[in-house]
Amino acid sequence: MLKVQSAWLLGLCLLASGVWAEDPVPGAHEVVNATTQKVMAVVAGANSYVKEDPERYYAQVQEILDPVIDFRGFARSVMGPYASSERYRSLDEAGRERLRDQLDRFTEVMRVGLVRTYSKGLLAYGNSRIEVFAASNEDAAAGRAAVRQLVYNDQPEPYVLIYQMGQSGSGEWQLRNIIIEGVNLGEIYRNQFEASARKNDGDVDAVINSWTAVEVKTKGA
Fold this sequence. Notes:
By secondary structure, the protein is an alpha+beta fold. It has helices at 7-14, 28-46, 54-65, 71-79, 85-90, 93-122, 185-199, 204-209, and strands spanning 129-139, 144-152, 159-167, 173-180, 183-184. The protein has a 5-stranded antiparallel beta sheet. α1 crosses α6 (93-122), α2 (28-46) packs antiparallel against α3 and α4 (71-79) crosses α7 (185-199).
């Protein structure tokens, strides 16, 4: 199984922190920058208690990430054709209700599983220097933006992360996908979902029930 260990770990962790600027609707760059500071503050304080109370740590990271990651949108994208609008329209009402339930369950599986799994890895990056660059191609009308982040630790070259951001219906910027060192996590998880669906003869419930996100291994991990 493909290992991408520091991936979401880096991504989730570094996408979390800070107090928002006074602007009630911060831009994509401000969201990433503020979230980064907040998460790293949690990581800095976790060493004193995480071994004795890991649930406290997971809960703090989860609380930070929940407002800034579009877990449902990400889950829908990972499910690909199994949760597409075309498939939804092709179903009868009972099928649509089942699909909505599957999407709800998979969203929660990814939300809890990703944060819990990769929060463990955040501790290794507590002393990293992080730079966040203004969003490129930020287009409020289209609701899309990309934010670039460099993470410096003990490696000769920094980790490069690209946050693909999207706007919610209320105009808030949220993470929709992340590319780490050229590795597109959305594509990796979508390929994993499709492979598992083929293995289970299209049984989406079986895929969700057995889901364990692949780990992405970045340089030096």
